[in-house]
Specification:
The complex is a heterodimer. Chain A has four helices and no strands. By secondary structure, chain A is an all-alpha fold. Chain A has a single domain, classed as Non-ribosomal Peptide Synthetase Peptidyl Carrier Protein, Chain A. Chain A starts with a helix and ends in an 8-residue tail after the last helix. Chain B contains eleven helices and 26 strands. Classes of the chains: A mainly alpha, B alpha/beta.
Chain lengths: 79, 475
């Protein structure tokens, strides 16, 4: 699985979304991405990429695009 | 009528600061609140669609302090549900955010302040109001149920004075909002801080958002409130590592925190010289009934504490006798002036008087230890009989949570206990653990893995939604 696929799968699985909902998605943009969904999403991503987010990055992670930017800090490139 | 707050005593203190840089003093709050009350012009019923914004708080302050009965609702309430509530209770006025006024075409604007508008509905004094009726608070959060708790002015004054006393609040406090204004815990924070001339920091951002913490630090918040789930999130956020020098006090209510998290936050508070205050309450008791003094937070983890000043606890067994010995479980009964009048389910109920006479049967099962500290062990109605044995669902949940550190909810029917978890791959282990703990036959237990445990806005499990998994008729 490519990093993009892993990244998308974490959203799809933890927030119960379809692939075509991901583009431009923001925190609270769908009902499932609330604080509860966010914790689930973070866990999924941590497992998928075997990383542990810093607190500041967890609270800064407010959109699909922002997550891609933040993951660069952990040497994860989403092409 | 005695007013809950005397804003003029603190004229020059800052009452409210919002996340966008707005702020008002107590002097300005008094002026705005009085102007709004004048626009309403009489004692009547108002629906307040709340947000954690200055205009919303001014409305609340105005209504409570000027004898205008208010129904506190979330501005996120679904439109159809809101319209149903309006036709059920026929309020004279609505207090709504500017961006929602378009929804109420049959209402006309009478007053506006801080991005909120007072709308006159077509209704006029449709239902008579009991003299003491101050607030109507939903029992269910966002579902739009017409069932409200009826709170009196005496209830509000009594509970607010008590809270300010046991939390030792003063006008140097700056509490940041973490809860909505249609929730009694959120209101109780505002009530008690206004009593002493302290400052409220208003935001609708959540603890999972950077903007919340930026505001927290810039505005030098001294306290926040949280339901158990708040503390679960903070734990996952590795809150203990955050640098928050202004923070003095964390309060917890809205359900029972796990003893494990209770201990973690108590130890954190102890090490950092802060207070962690676990509390107990219900909308039916205005807000608070019990609190664990922070100096006991570590020693008495898992306890919700002692009665608040002016209140009294007792435990009653199944035959109605008062339990006098420590360690024995009974239903928790509370007595105090903050016990609310009763419920309202329709407009005709607004004239009803005090149906409880200061005594509330909480429906919670509790015990106390030899030092008189109370522990909630479950809810009265959430138990099953399995093979003739009484099994308390909350206790099973707590056992699983403590053993596996996972989310869980238990429900079911007699002889069939369903354990809902969100973790894949450990169903067999969870089942074996529960079977071993209860010493009951494994056939009674079924573990189901869900995407998530259904919860309401305040993090309480929605057991009704789980019935569909085990009761075909509930589908």
């Amino acid at each position: 699985m490519s990093n993009r696929e892993k990244y998308n799968k974490a959203f799809i699985d933890s927030l119960e979304l379809e692939e075509d909902q991901l583009e431009g998605l923001t925190y609270q943009g769908v009902p499932s991405w609330d604080s509860v969904g966010h914790m689930g999403l973070i866990s999924e991503l941590e497992d998928a990429f075997d990383i542990q987010f810093e607190t500041d990055d967890i609270v800064d992670f407010n959109s699909y695009d922002k997550g891609i930017e933040l993951l660069k800090k952990y040497d994860i490139e989403i092409e | 009528m005695t007013r809950l707050w005397e804003f003029d005593r603190f004229k020059d203190n800052v009452a409210l600061i919002d996340e966008f840089g707005g702020s008002i003093s107590y002097g300005e709050l008094e002026i705005s609140a009085s102007a709004l009350a004048k626009a309403v012009g009489k004692r009547c019923l108002v629906f307040a669609l709340t947000r954690n914004e200055i205009g919303s708080v001014i409305g609340y302050a105005s209504f409570v302090n000027n004898g205008i009965a208010a129904v506190m609702l979330s501005s996120h309430l679904e439109e159809g549900l809101l319209q149903e509530l309006i036709s059920t209770y026929k309020p004279d006025f609505l207090w709504v955010p500017d961006d929602m006024t378009g929804r109420f075409e049959d209402s006309s604007e009478r007053h506006s302040a801080y991005n909120y508008k007072l709308l006159k509905t077509p209704y006029n004094d449709c239902y008579p109001l009991y003299d003491e009726l101050a607030l109507l608070i939903s029992t269910s959060g966002s579902t739009g149920s017409p069932k409200f708790v009826r709170q009196s002015y005496t209830n509000l004054i009594s509970n607010t004075v008590s809270i300010a006393e046991y939390l030792k609040l003063d006008d140097k406090q700056r509490a940041i909002t973490t809860l909505p204004m249609n929730y009694v815990y959120g209101l109780s924070v505002i009530n008690s801080h206004f009593l002493v001339g302290a400052t409220m920091l208003l935001t609708d951002k959540g603890i999972m958002q950077k903007e919340f913490w930026n505001f927290f630090r810039e505005a030098q918040a001294t306290s926040f409130a949280g339901v158990p789930y708040t503390y679960e999130i903070l734990d996952k956020l590795r809150f203990y590592r955050m640098d928050l020098p202004s923070l003095q006090t964390m309060t917890q209510a809205g359900g029972k925190i796990t003893p494990e998290l209770h201990e973690k936050f108590a130890l954190y508070a102890h090490e950092k010289g802060k207070n962690f205050v676990v509390m107990y309450g219900a909308a039916e008791a205005t807000a608070r009934m019990g609190y664990l003094p922070p100096e006991y937070a570590v020693e008495k983890k898992g306890s919700m504490g002692i009665p608040i000043p002016g209140g009294k606890f007792m435990l009653v067994d199944e035959l109605g006798a008062v339990i006098t010995e420590p360690g024995i479980t009974g239903e928790l009964v509370y007595e105090g002036k903050n016990v609310t009048l009763g419920y309202a389910e329709k407009g005709e109920d607004l004239i009803l008087g005090d149906e409880r006479d200061g005594r509330l049967e909480t429906g919670d099962m509790a015990r106390f230890d030899s030092d008189g500290f109370y522990y909630i062990v479950g809810r009265k109605k959430r138990f099953l009989k399995i093979y003739g044995n009484r099994v308390n669902l909350a206790e099973i949940e707590n056992m699983i949570k403590n053993e596996f550190s996972i989310e869980t909810a238990c429900a079911g029917k007699d002889d069939h206990l369903y354990i809902f978890i969100t973790e894949e791959g450990i169903s067999d282990k969870v089942k074996a653990f529960v079977v071993n703990k209860t010493k009951l036959n494994q056939a009674a237990f079924k573990v189901m893995v869900l995407e998530e445990i259904p919860k309401n806005e305040s993090g309480k499990t929605l057991y009704k939604e789980l019935t569909a998994y085990y009761d075909p008729e509930a589908r």
